[in-house]
Amino acid sequence: MLVKSLQSISHIEHLEQCFAILNHIGMKLNPSKCTFTVPSGEFLGYIVTERGIEANPRQLNAFLSMSSPRSIREVQRLTGRVAALNRFISKSTDKCLPFYNLLRKASKNFVWDKNCERAFGELKDYLSKPPVLAKPEFGEEFFLYVSVSDSAVSGVLVRIDRNDERPIFYISKSFSVAESRYPMIEILALAVVTSARKLRPYFQSHTVVVLTTQPLRKILHSPSQSGRLAKWIIELSEYDIQFRARVSLKSQVLADFLIELPLVPNEEEEKEGPWILHVDGASSKQGSGIGIRLQSPWGEVIEQSFRLAFSASNNEAEYESLLAGLCLVRNLSKKFQSFKLTRVSRGDNSAADALAALASNSEVKVSRMIPVEVIDHTIIAIGEMNFVTTRSMHRRMNEEAPQGVEEPQQDPEVRTVIKEIHDGVCGNHSGGRSLAFKVKKYGYFWPTLIADCELYARKCEQCQKHAPSIHQPTEPLSSVSSPYPFMKWSMDIIGPLHVSTRGVKFVLVLTDYFSKSVEASAYANITQGLGSTSCIAFFGKSGLPPRRATGETPFSLVYGMEAVIPAEIYVPSPRRIENPRNEAANSELMVDVIDTIEERRNRAFIRMQNYQNAAARYYNSNVRNRHFDVGTLVLRKVQQNTTEEGAGKLSIIWEGPCRITQVVRNSVYRLENMEGKAVRRAWNSIHLKRYFI
């Protein structure tokens, strides 16, 4: 435990705060192991002073006093002492490479050669004056220098102290067999990833600027990368890392990082590069033309268009363009030794193609120059906007955002961005959270991003009308218990209607609640429909349906016994054979059945209610109440008779909006359209959903 103070006058106060924390958690200290008011001291194997972090003198003396190793065991002891000082050694892997190679060959023989002795001497000279590492300050930027050698990647994390670069931590890592075959730019990216892994606490709490002359930012910010580069990009996205161009080093301590990549001799650079000639021809109704573009190895470009005064096909224009280009090259003062003809795609020959098209549409015998100017800013004035460039700005905006705002007012710029991405030319009417991630992907962010996107998507009229149907019930299940036929039935008289040719104008409708069967007959007057003929025809329709939740057949619950099926007529069953022979016993049996029929009906009624209660419990578990007040705007589900003809799956599912005018009872409402015209019949809430504006 270390308590540090920048000023001695505040040290007592800091100690009091430390002791208060120890008392609160019940921790005790051993006074014999405590040291107070020391300007410097040893902590975790290092010497902490006002100047910074220094190497432990005992560890330095243990290394400097070593003689040249004479065995593998002594080489291992040497590398172990170097590992304890790795934090202070720049490019430690490169400096200790001869020792590591010697350990790999230890199984064969031990030879301490001149390379090992020279590396041992250079390491002693380096550690005779070890660097003093700077202590980090809260909130400041750190800078990372990386370097790649033939055998390892190295890095150093530095901070700016009074216009001087001071190192904080040195890292180094040797290549594995697979890593040694990486492309050079990926090895440089590996150096950044290795630094982030070993210095994770520094990268998490500070902004780190990588100073490099290579296009690392383009490599590590490209969304099209795959494989290990994609994995590295995801790993580094956790930190606030910036990339800047490297300038001259300000500290002699960082001299080892002057060269970022190893120098690879390239014999081709000594030779002069080739001249590149692009030619193309174009033919149209207006005429024919050719375009020529010549580029030197130094980037100089010569462009020219020619209008052909004679009629030429497209192939002839191509040949003419090649010949004209070769004539242009021959007239140059430069002498060429050889040339090579290569057919390229149209995309790689766009400049010459544009010149040829320009010449084919130009007037004959009219020479002209077309100046190309640059427009520095957009013609449409766009107001200034603030963009999030670092993760620290992102966190700071979230912390400063007001909390608990129910319905924030959207800025015009915010609504324009959301509207274009949601339902613009390339929009797909995505949901709220998906829309928020798309907005962030395009580079926009504000503290209430998700809430604004969800609010906009919820109010989108097309999204509301094409939303899926709601299948959840809105009211508990209400069932009618009718365990056997004719226990409950209804009789309705409809009329008077228009008099038919037979002189009838009333309709008598009989409905059985058990079988849901309906019997309808037409009559001239009301009293005529109450005759026995219609009722007898209705009550005779019981049939023999299969057993259901009652455990009995409907026929047996009505008449007390099972019906005689047609098969028993042709193939007599025992009751068809015995009952006619003993009519007295059969009559007594029928009387006994009639006496117990009420008990059987009650038992069937109880069983039916248990069955209905179980079905109601399952049905009611999915009930989601949707209550609407008078004046609420709602959408109405499109019925089969009102669907758009020919639309198919692309037709809307909800139509409207409509306004609630009356609450008939729970979940039943009367509606009117936006013109004030009443909608026919009442509507259940399962066919309605709230409309947001």
Automatic annotation (TrEMBL):
This is Ribonuclease H-like superfamily. Residues 413-468 form the Integrase zinc-binding domain. InterPro entries: Integrase_H2C2, RT_RNaseH_2. It comes from the Eukaryota. Residues 112-210 form the Reverse transcriptase/retrotransposon-derived protein RNase H-like domain. CDD domains: RNase_HI_RT_Ty3. PANTHER family: RIBONUCLEASE H.
